[in-house]
Amino acid sequence: MSKNEFKGIPIKVVPPASEPAEVEMEQVALYETHKKIYPRWVTGRFNNWRIFFVIATQLFFYGVAWLQWNDRQMLLFDLVNRKFFVFGFVFLPQDFIYLTSLLLISALGLFVWTSVGGRLWCGYACPQTVYTEIFLWMEKWIEGDRPARIKLDKAPMSAHKFRLKATKHLLWILFSIWTGFTFVGYFTPIRDLLAAVPTLSFGPWETFWVLFYGFATYGNAGWMREQVCKYMCPYARFQSAMFDADTLIISYDAERGDPRGSRRSGTDHKAEGLGDCIDCTICVQVCPVGIDIRDGLQYECIGCAACIDACDGVMDKVGYPRGLIRYTTEKALSHGYPEKDFVKHIARPRVIGYGLILLTVTSIMAASLYMRVPLKVNVMRDRNALVRETDEGLLENSYRLNIQNADEKQHRYVIRVGGLPDVKIEGDTRREIVVGPAEAEVASVRVQVEPQHATRGSKKIWFEVQAVDAPSISVKEKAAFIGR
Amino acid sequence: MEDFSSGFWGIYIAAIVVISLAGLLYLLRSQSVVKLPKGQKADVTGHKWDDDLEEYNNPLPRWWMWLFYLTIFFAIGYLVLYPGLVVWKGSNNWTAAGQFKQERDKKDAEIKPLYDKFMQQDVVAVSKSTEAREIGQRLFMTYCIQCHGSDAHGAKGFPNLTDDDWLYGGSPEKIVETISNGRGGQMPAFGAQFGEEGVKDVANHVLKIAGKKFDAERATRGEANFKTVCAACHGPDGKGNQAIGAPNLTDKTWLYGGSETTIIETITNGRKNYMPAWKEFLGDAKVHLLAGYVYGLSHQEGEAAKAK
């Protein structure tokens, strides 16, 4: 049987017409090479808003550290002594819940205005944006605008180039060190820190944090820039979950702008079949994250509105109406409703929901702060100690009361006990404990009860600590009395 | 490494670590580039669902890749310097115990001048120094309160240190001796020897000499047993003996309780008590400071008494 016969069926072998041509393969990198972005200088009303926010936030950051309140720094987080001075308040580690609520309020606040206004935080007030902006101002001042910077980077190293680059980095570094210094100034009194500058007698941790925070500022605002928003910031990514079709976005009006193309002045571009976009690419050149807004909404867009300002300027020049790139919503763009009706669509379930939670948390925190008693008491019963019997036959337990004065005045406190019949504190019950401003004292207290009132097991008692000179400052704490 | 019964485990761990590192390095290298036909871009990963649902390739920046390499180089550096591989002790010979000793020695050296100053004073002088008392209190709060309580008032079976009534003597030297070497007190059980009634009789004699309410008839009967048996340690008049730690039965202070029931329990079953020795653990200086603090508890005068 021949090879070409199979079960008697003749098989005809057909040679392939031609071998497929050898495909030329090449290696493609799977990591993106960083392309430096040179944002072009922009002016306009939204940029003015950004300038306002940069100045406002930085006046607060660099300024508030120097303000005094009650003969101490107004805003000081004294980690070493675990006391946190915030305006008129002295917070103790037990008040950590207020930090939690503050973070909650900040998060919910971001939720609310992101669902209404999109990435407003990112575009105007986020430290990453703010410091990048400041660094760009310095960069422009020394190296010039976009074309000059591109030219300078392409040019071979020369004395001129070296001088410009060195000046820029020196300026950046000085600014960064000042930033790091101010940051540490919120944890170590900034005036002490300043006094230590001439002799450079900072502590090891202060030195570390000034340099580390300074390095982070220099690195993030000078070098990383949009990379932080694109690859490092989690908020940038999960904001899309708060967006809906009624959220403000920055968008190019393709209907009006396309087809794009350059034109000579004085001609009727509509008759030539062109839209309003003259394809000058200024909107791309000003973009700090290096995208083309005309490609639609992209995750990289931080909503800085630089392209709006740029395009409005161009439209003014060529005599077209402003707003080819503008704040709008997805629904308005698809003619769901006229753009000015945006306000009517703010009150939607998502926004109301976020808003209600925000309002609740804010009210609870405000009420709690208003009613806060500037006194903390920790009752510590001797560990593993059982009951003891006094010479008079009374049952006795001993406790240590940690009395923390969260007020900035000295107070005298009395301790009372209750919860069992005839329960009393051994010795002088009117004994007063004096605790200095924002200090803590430990009072050793022995509690005695007639044996018949403290039978088998643990009994609930309470301690009340009250300031003699300010009776409204009073705290009641539960404790256990171990009977026989 | 004594916990590892066999040298195999060191090799086992080292092999896993080295193979993992090499694997990671290979993975990183192999996943950094892909071979594609010329002109084609790696803009999709090639994963496809439901005919047209494709996964886009959103590449990480190149500097991020260098961070991955950095972690691997860090791991290698760490394994050279520190004992992470078990079979290799690390080139800088670091151990947790060594670091602890180093930190402790440093702190000890820092404190030494302060301790030396107090070692030159006697216990009474130490008890009057505010600084020494504060140190002593912190030591007491760490090592002593488990038995004697934070206020040093003791508990059942653990003596009150504030009342100037002492089992073994309250002179500064005796206090130092007690803390240094510890104490072991023992009272034998007399339940079998005296019988139930006999124990009650002796107990009533004890109540009598203690100045408490007692049954006169029983006390008289119990006196004989007390004088012959109990007096061996507690003395014929029941005033105790500090040389062997036998308590004084005529005062108001009771180690286990002064009710009739408790006294009967004590005589019937005996008592055994123990305080550990601290000299080895704390060293002389801390014992000295503690002795000063304890002495001061029952000898408060001037500033100390006012502060209390």
TrEMBL record, chain A:
InterPro entries: 4Fe4S_Fe-S-bd, 4Fe4S_Fe_S_CS, Cyt_c_oxidase_cbb3_FixG, Electron_Trans/Redox, FixG_C, Helical_ferredxn, Ig-like_fold. Residues 267-296 form the 4Fe-4S ferredoxin-type domain. The keyword Transmembrane applies. Pfam families: Fer4_18 (PF13746), Fer4_5 (PF12801), FixG_C (PF11614). The chain crosses the membrane at residues 49-69, 84-113, 170-187, 207-224, 351-371. Coiled coil: none annotated. Keywords: 4Fe-4S, Electron transport, Iron, Iron-sulfur, Membrane, Metal-binding, Transmembrane, Transmembrane helix, Transport. SUPFAM superfamilies: 4Fe-4S ferredoxins. The keyword Iron-sulfur applies. PANTHER family: FERREDOXIN-TYPE PROTEIN NAPH. NCBIfam families: ccoG_rdxA_fixG. This is Cytochrome c oxidase accessory protein CcoG. It comes from Parachitinimonas caeni. The gene is ccoG.
UniProtKB/TrEMBL annotation, chain B:
SUPFAM superfamilies: Cytochrome c (SSF46626). The chain crosses the membrane at residues 7-28, 63-81. InterPro entries: CcoP_N (IPR032858), CcoP_N_sf (IPR038414), Cyt_c-like_dom (IPR009056), Cyt_c-like_dom_sf (IPR036909), Cyt_c_oxidase_cbb3_su3 (IPR004678), Cytochrome_c_Oxidase_Subunit (IPR050597). The keyword Cell membrane applies. Residues 131-210, 217-298 form the Cytochrome c domain. Its cofactor is heme c. Its main location: membrane. Gene3D superfamilies: 6.10.280.130, Cytochrome c-like domain (1.10.760.10). PANTHER family: CBB3-TYPE CYTOCHROME C OXIDASE SUBUNIT FIXP. Component of the cbb3-type cytochrome c oxidase. Belongs to the CcoP / FixP family. This is Cbb3-type cytochrome c oxidase subunit.
